[in-house]
Amino acid sequence: MNRYSKVIGTGGYLPETIRTNEDISRHVDTSDSWIYERTGIKSRRIAGADETASSMAEIAAIQAIEMAGIEAGEIDLIIVATGTPDRVYPSTACLLQERLGIQNCVSFDIQAACSGAIFALSIADKFIKTGAADKVLVVGSEICSRLVDWTDRGTCILFGDGAGAVLLDSADEVGILSTHIHSDGEFEDLLYCPNPQAATEANKDEAGFINMRGNEVFKIAVNTLGRIVDETLAANDMEKTDIDWLVPHQANTRIIAATARKLRMSMEHVILTLENQGNTSSASVLLAFNEGVRDGRIQRGQVVLLEAFGAGFTWGSALIKY
Length: 322
Ligand code: ACO
Hints:
Layout: E1 4-13, E2 17-20, H1 21-25, H2 32-39, E3 43-46, H3 53-68, E4 77-81, H4 92-99, E5 106-110, H5 116-129, E6 136-143, E7 161-171, E8 176-183, E9 191-192, E10 211-212, H6 214-235, E11 245-248, H7 253-262, H8 274-277, H9 284-294, E12 303-310, E13 314-321
Parallel strand pairs: 4-5, 4-6, 11-12
Antiparallel strand pairs: 1-7, 2-3, 6-7, 8-13, 9-10, 12-13
């Protein structure tokens, strides 16, 4: 009998504080209309001083566990995707395991920038398909606001904080149809965030802040995401019309619209959260997926294409029969 990974629960968490484009334009030379026209973003959420990637992950995870109707102790594996871990170690996944009161499971973090959730889903799917795990919790949790240089108008307008979660279980009917993940370090200088603890004299001034050549990243993202759509459809012998929903990484509406055009899909079939969340990096796809599931747009049996592109560069997709 074939083993598949089936989505049995989703969850999401957004911090309370809202930072609007107007708020940002009081501190840097920008405007609401520039930001909205170029990115599709109007506001983003900012984590409170006492919040961490693991505290936000916990709330999203509990929602997913409750939707699934299981006990946390039944989870075999926790994978947290984050570029903003609470600590260098233990992993945020171990801290989440403790928060959820799970004594006996495997937990680890992965770091693939904005593609983190897709990478985590891909790993989770392989653990399930090989029989190494049954119930797997995948979380993307990010406090991007602490990596942003709030004086750099090229990046501070883009990012926000939040956490998204998906709970998978082994099943004999199809769930995740396929995942596709890629990396290429060639363009590492186009988008990076230096680690302050590894800073040298030469780069100590920029340490800890997101550094991006946005326009170049934009062009590569559009082309790469177009290719991942083709790769995913071909691997499943599917047509564009077989996709019911596109759940993209929420970086820029113009990048998302280009991917939708590639699928000949109207924007009504795209789950968009960007306007009020900004780019929450590895949390964004899972937050959008959760929103589509919880508001009833994504129905059981429908085919959903999740995709993301991020620093590395990293990129990937997950095709799911929900
Ligand atoms: N307000 C006003 N003007 C601005 C702002 C701003 N916030 N930011 C830049 N500008 C100016 C620039 O200085 C430039 O001015 P100039 O022509 O006088 O030199 C002009 O606007 C055009 O700048 P571009 O960078 O070419 O603007 P662009 O249209 O490319 O938009 C943006 C910038 C929104 C950052 C876009 O490039 C983008 O979304 N890039 C992709 C981001 C992304 O997808 N990242 C990947 C995921 S993130 C991750 O993995 C962590």
